[in-house]
Amino acid sequence: MTDGGSSAEGLLAQQARRESNARTYPRSLPLAIERAEGAILEDVDGNEYIDCLAGAGTLALGHNHPAVVERMEALLERERAVHTLDLTTPIKERFVDRLLESLPDEFAETAKVQFCSPAGTDAVEAALKLVKTATGNRSMLAFQGGYHGMTTGALSLMGDTAAKEPVPGLMPDVHHLPYPYEYRCPFGLGGEDCWRTSAEYVDRTLSNPDGGIVDPAGMVLEPVQGEGGAIPAPAEWLREMRRVTRERDVPLIVDEIQTGLGRTGELYGFEHADIVPDVLTLSKAIGGGLPLSVVVYDESLDVWEPGAHAGTFRGNQLGMAAGTATIEHVLEHDLDEHAAAMGDRLRAHLEETAATFEAVGDVRGRGLLLGMEVVDPAGDPDSLGHFPADGDLASAVQSAAFDRGLVIETGGRRGSVVRFLPPLTISASRIDEVGEIVHESVRAAVEGGQRRAEAPA
Q: Three-state SS for 17?
């Protein structure tokens, strides 16, 4: 029974009493949502917000897009099955058709599709099982700063140790390699030297018979580290990882759960490097806002026995209908190109803010997956001359933005990166509004920090 009242404050207080302590977003984004349309959220008190979180990148077309709503309504009105396990339907076959059409021909021509349980982390778990079954090997290669989900196998791949430390029984034999994070290069190098050294390190490590890594079952990487701080991998480095894995017959798993279907300015992030993975994990956008995840992989890896991998909700027909509508709309309206253009526009705003405030150390990303790293100019710079990350100030920017009607999230190392994941349909005028709000929010956060620092003890 709802007893918290109808105000946002009352509902949030009720949520805090009844929900798990593990809840996250309400702590920094105190929203009780009443309605949503496109890139706009409205809370129960009538306040409106521009949504640059979009379900952590799930809502490629924004909230309640007519193409998605109509497709779901049609399914229900015609008394179609909603849940079918892995039995097929015309709706499912149409989804697979559109999914394969969205992929490069070289990949799609030999691709198999595995439907999983509904979350992205389920796709990662299925991919791990797939490559271990196909190769007979057990060790996995992952990257520092990576994020692949919160189930045991996916969590084992994560670069952030804080999330893993309290969890017993993580998957063994995961080796974390250096990701080419140019702004804070793990080797203390600038420019191209960072990715070149990372690639050489990986190559040499895997070639070293005394390196302690038994034959890997697979390598897992993100073409843009999302939760890790909107860090794009250089195309040249991605091509090197493809070369290194191909020469050693190591399946390359590209995790596009957050980047897939247009967000980076290409339909898929790996297309920036013109490579073809062995395995692709997808969720978020491909379900059109509903739970759906798949693994797409080369047929040479399809050695599973019937029933070797399952999941009760792998037959979510509403998700497939919504996903089909989303894929079709992205393809028909070239939303990958729109994302590239709007990303460039937003990035220009963010770079103007970075030029104004020392507290913005770096602006990066691809398409409409962008990040702004917030730093402490009073701290000691590192060997590259970059100030230390400032997660508290990033949180202050997020809070100031929320007060001004903008929903953004923080992430990255030490929570210091303000992240932007708006719908791919967002307009130029909205992008300009976001840029203005962010600029004023950084100003407010910086000035607020200065006032606190100058206050008498």
A: helix
Q: Domain 68-332 belongs to what topology? A: Aspartate Aminotransferase; domain 2 (3.40.640)
- The whole-angstrom separation of Cα 106 and Cα 271 is 12
Coil, strand or helix at 419: strand
| Residue linked to tokens 């990958």 | 336
Integer angstrom CA distances of residue 130 from 7, 111, 234, 255: 48, 14, 27, 14
SS3 at position 251: coil
Amino acid at 111: A
Structure tokens at 128: 């791990």
Classified as helix, coil or strand, 358 is coil
Distance separating alpha carbons of residues 191 and 185, to the nearest angstrom: 9
DSSP helix/strand/coil, 91: helix
The span from the CA of 181 to the CA of 269, in Å, is: 16
List Cα–Cα distances, 415 to 51, 152, 224, 324, 330, in angstroms. Answer: 20, 22, 17, 35, 31
Per-residue pLDDT of the chain (457 residues; tens, 9 = 90+): 455 468 999 999 999 999 999 899 999 999 999 999 999 999 999 999 999 999 999 999 999 999 999 999 999 999 899 999 999 999 999 999 999 999 999 999 999 999 998 999 999 999 999 999 999 999 999 999 999 988 888 888 888 877 777 777 788 899 999 999 999 999 999 999 999 999 999 999 999 988 889 999 999 999 999 999 999 999 999 999 999 999 999 999 999 999 999 999 999 999 999 999 999 999 999 999 999 999 999 999 999 999 889 888 999 999 999 999 999 999 999 999 999 999 999 999 999 999 999 999 999 999 999 999 999 999 999 999 999 999 999 999 999 999 999 999 999 989 999 999 999 999 999 999 999 999 999 999 999 876 666 666 5
Q: Are 77 and 65 in contact (CB under 8 A)?
A: no
Q: How many residues does the chain have?
A: 457
Three-class secondary structure of residue 331 per DSSP:
helix
Q: Distance between CA atoms of 108 and 105, rounded to whole angstroms?
A: 5
CA separation (Å) from 87 to 90, 104, 372, 440? 11, 27, 45, 53
Query: Is the pTM of the predicted complex or chain greater than 0.70?
Result: yes
For residue 142, the cross-strand partners are 176
Beta strands in 29-166 (DSSP E): 33-37, 40-43, 48-51, 111-115, 139-143
Using N-to-C axis directions, what is the helix angle for 391-403 and 428-454, rounded to 10°?
A: 120
Q: Provide DSSP, 205-245.
A: HHH-TTSS-PPEEEEEE-SEETTTTSEEPPHHHHHHHHHHH
Mention every residue, 6+ apart, whose C-beta is less than 8 A from residue 242. Answer: 252, 273, 275, 276, 277
